[in-house]
Write a structure and sequence with these properties.
172 residues; mainly alpha
């Protein structure tokens, strides 16, 4: 798990998880769920839901570990990776009914919405967070998101189509 929670190692983990099939990378993904919860399992769990079903009585500990992992991803700026989006989405699905945990998740992810909307799992997470939070938080989410989309579009124009940027600069 330490490899996937630093900036350089996360790129390596992302490459491995994208290039190789799920059957091969399941043990690597299992480490994010918490080694202390999965070490005695004969077969690695396919998802967080399966792990929670197998760890009866330890559900709160597993979810606390996942909450701390999400906070670590946010603090270290690792929300640009697809595997992080998938892990956050799995956590979001499991805590959907828990008001306190959803409140914690919404506080963690509101400002990180622009990075999360780049994948399907991240967009689903932001939708769940937006559905859970209040009107002020939704307004803040929309402001951050609209500014991020504008910046993203400008970066595309600037980096991928510089001739359009030059044309727009000299035409006004």
């Amino acid at each position: 798990m330490a490899l996937g929670t630093n900036v350089i190692g996360a790129r390596t983990v992302e490459s491995i998880l994208v290039l190789y099939p799920n059957k091969v990378t399941r043990k690597l993904r299992m480490e994010f769920y918490g080694k202390k919860f999965t070490i005695l399992m004969a077969e690695p769990p396919q998802s967080l839901r399966e792990l929670l079903a197998n760890c009866e009585g330890k559900e709160h500990s597993v979810l606390d570990h996942m909450r701390d992992l999400v906070q670590k991803f946010v603090n270290k700026g690792l929300l640009e990776f697809k595997f992080v989006h998938e892990l956050v989405w799995e956590y979001c699905k499991e805590v959907k009914g828990d008001e306190k945990r959803m409140e914690d998740l919404s506080q963690q992810l509101l400002d990180a919405a622009p990075k999360l909307i780049s994948t399907k799992a991240g967009a689903r997470t932001i939708c769940e967070v937006a559905a859970h939070c209040g009107a002020k938080e939704r307004k803040r989410l929309l402001k951050v998101r609209s500014y991020a989309i504008l910046c993203y579009m400008l970066s595309i124009v600037y980096f991928y189509h510089p001739y359009i940027y030059v044309y727009l600069s000299f035409s006004y």
